[in-house]
Amino acid sequence: MNEAPPAAVPPPGHFEVLARDPGSSARRGRLWTAHGAVETPVFMPVGTQGSVKSVSPAELHELDCRILLGNTYHLNDRPGMEVMEAVGGLHRFMGWDKAILTDSGGFQVFSLTRLRKMTPDGVEFRSPTDGTKHFLGPREAMAIQRILGSDIAMLFDECPPYPCPREYACQAVDRTLAWASLCVQQPRAKGQLYFGIVQGGVYPDLRERCASELVALNCDGYAIGGVSVGEPDELILPGVEMGVVGLPEEKPRYLMGVGGLVQMVEAIARGIDMFDCVLPTRVARNGTAVTRRGRYSLRNAIYKTDLQPVEEGCGCYACRNFTRAYIRHLLNVNEILGVRLLTLHNLYRYLELLKEIRSALEAGRFEEIRAEFRALESTSAVL
Prior knowledge:
This protein is an alpha/beta fold. The protein has helices at about 55-60, 70-75, 80-85, 90-95, 105-110, 140-150, 165-185, 205-215, 235-245, 260-270, 280-285, 315-320, 325-330, 335-365, 365-380; strands at about 15-20, 25-35, 35-40, 40-45, 65-70, 100-105, 115-120, 120-125, 135, 150-155, 195-200, 220-225, 255, 275, 290, 295. It has two domains: about 15-275, TIM Barrel (Alpha-Beta Barrel); about 280-370, no CATH class.
């Protein structure tokens, strides 16, 4: 008896909504890329320079990570595109066979306040690594991402700081839109998707205009940028609400750089599908554990003889095999294993929470998770 032929794999860029929460804008989706399907909502670990700090690709596979983030600016600085082109792109270079999203580098360039000069075509800047002069604009950013071969390339944008006068925010939106129009005209790697970035600061009409004009470019997805750039926490979710206005339901939505657990749950309720943040790996290097009930410093003396795992009931490798006392010891004597174990735990916590949210959306129980995190937030836990 002949077997039925396998179902056709959807092309890169195909996004399907599999379930919706009746009480909010949360949705369970699936985005197809050139390196497989990404289940959403999803958290993307940050591998800025071609590596998620202290974690191997094999360990990311064990965590069931399907997509991570790399950075155009940093990878262009080192090792450079001559190397990247010679080795055949970022996937091959870092030994990663799942999806990669690359930021355009705009945020990093605009952070170099004293080292950059704005022009209509992009930004002139000096490398903080060796002081050499560089230029990055829409054409250059897309050319770099084409060589990197990322699955999702971000369009070059200007991310205004907070606080920001309306006039400057308006100029940043104008530049973002002009540059986006150039970006979508550039050649892309096979199967590479383009996401536009909605800017506009704290001004709803500017964000709505930016979103509307980006939608007219028919991007494969849309990101909300310029959120969590120094503003008070109470302005972050209003920024998300402003950013999603006018974005099409049939395209994925990505909230850039926001990584508090409560913030992510509430952003999902507002229709966000994708997240990235350095928080779980960065705080691990400082000795901080992220748990479902909040964060705490494992360096504290109270854990000196504590034989409990980092988080009770956690299924990560660190919690299954080691105690708070042991990991605290490693951290306090600067053994790299301590950072590695805590990083693995923190990433597991993020990825498992998003997996749980996906299951809850399928089962119609998202509101239970949302209520849980709202209750935790009211106890002043740092989430």
